Amino acid sequence: MEELTLTVPALLFPAISLILLAYTNRFLSYAQLIRTLKAQYLQHRSDLTAAQIDNLRRRLYLTRAMQILGIASLFLCVVTMFLLYIGLQLVAAYVFGAGLLALIGSLGVSIREIQISVRALEIYLNDMEH
Question: Which Pfam families match (predicted)?
């Protein structure tokens, strides 16, 4: 195994930060959409609105998981840098590996969330066709 240096985990900082920003924007847009759908649902209860609310609930929980895994990844990168700084090379390598796994998990959950988002749009398209 090659020696892990401080620059390797530091290279992930911009990528993880951008991913977390995208996740946060997604979360904020869901919050706004949920508020809008609630008002709509209270005025006129329909199966379409109920389906959208259910879909948004699932997407919201997935977004939370994406954010938690992304933050864990960033946290583990920082811990890796600290461990490298104090000379614990082997422990740092394992912690960095865990950080990469958290990032992979975050991206995997993101793929699932995108699939559910597409289904939400299909609900609207199907409703417009009928």
Answer: DUF2721
12 occurs within a structural domain: no
Contact 25, 86 (CB under 8 A): no
Alpha carbon distance 32, 51 (integer Å): 17
pLDDT tens track for 71-102 = 999 999 999 999 999 999 999 999 999 999 99
3-state secondary structure of 48: helix
Distance in angstroms (rounded) separating the CA atoms of residues 10 and 119: 37
Judge if pTM exceeds 0.90: no
Residue reference for tokens 């840098």: 81
Domain count, the chain: 1
Nearest to 72 by CA among 31, 6, 12, 127: 12
Cβ-contact 12, 77 below 8 angstroms? yes
Is there a domain that residue 51 lies in? yes
Answer whether residue 34 is part of any domain: no
**Coil, strand or helix at 128:** helix
| Token pair recorded at residue 84 | 């490298």
